[in-house]
Amino acid sequence: MLVFSRLGKKGNFGNHLFQIASTIGIAIKNAHGFAFPRWEYAKYFIYDFPLYDEKLKYHLIKENTYHFSNIELKEGNYDLNGWFQSEKYFNVDAVKMCFKFRPEIINQVKIKYKKALSKKYILISVRRGDFVNNPYYFQLDYKYYFLAITRNFNDWQNRTLIFTSDDIEYCKKHFQFLPNAIFIEKSNVIEQLALGSLCHDFVISNSTFSWWMAWLGENKESKVLRPIKNFRGKFGTINNDKDYFPERWLAFNSKSERIELKYYKLIVKGEFLKAIENVSYYYRFSVKEVKRFIKKIIGRK
């Protein structure tokens, strides 16, 4: 038996999906059963996730590397602990089956977003949260999303551009000038993920939630645009993210592209807002450092 006893306690929703999917894949590959603790999101899916027996003893298996590493299990009970963020761990058919939403949820989403889904569309998943100015994560700005759309979808002006985000105001400030843009507001993670499962073409960020929106929705004809990497700096060197994005997804480097001058208003506004954001971040960072320094000095007295 293979379990993931820390499900729900390690990371957010996107992380949970990776932990479940990888547990299932590793278990099936090794001819083991799998089970999980109670999970708050289980009620939204058709599959009845088996519950693990807390009374049993389990051998702990820790993730040794961020990139894919083959895991072989002998007989016994095992408990995974780590991120396991690679499709290479999955049994794709089993995971697709386990993450099918209940019909009533899909129907609600289809009704609510009937207009957005009425013609060909591209879903753009913008995740910001704790990613902005995070020293560990590769940084994406407005240029990435805009250029990923305009450089990779020749018919983008004839499609509906569906923006979903944990900071939808950011999307509106930058992209509301686009007449074919729709902004998904007041929606929870389940509704957003269910919407993603109905879409086929994507521009995603380097968040696990964006990853899953694309993975659950893609088909053989899909085009998924993703960042060139997940992590950056020394952290990225230590944690090799080579297996994070599926190879079939298209890496897009916005640094090598320029926005056309006819969109100068977007450039001016985008750079202005980015400058304000950076000043605000470094101000907060400086205040924290000063407070930490003062506490250190006071502690010496």
UniProtKB/TrEMBL annotation:
Can the keyword Glycosyltransferase be found in this entry's annotation? Answer: yes
Q: Which GO terms describe its molecular function?
A: galactoside 2-alpha-L-fucosyltransferase activity
Please indicate if the UniProt record lists Glycoprotein as a keyword.
no
* One GO CC term on file: membrane
Q: Which UniProt keywords apply?
A: Glycosyltransferase, Transferase
One of its GO biological process terms is:
carbohydrate metabolic process
InterPro entries, per database record: Glyco_trans_11
Q: What is this protein called?
A: Alpha-1,2-fucosyltransferase
Species the sequence originates in = Pseudalgibacter alginicilyticus
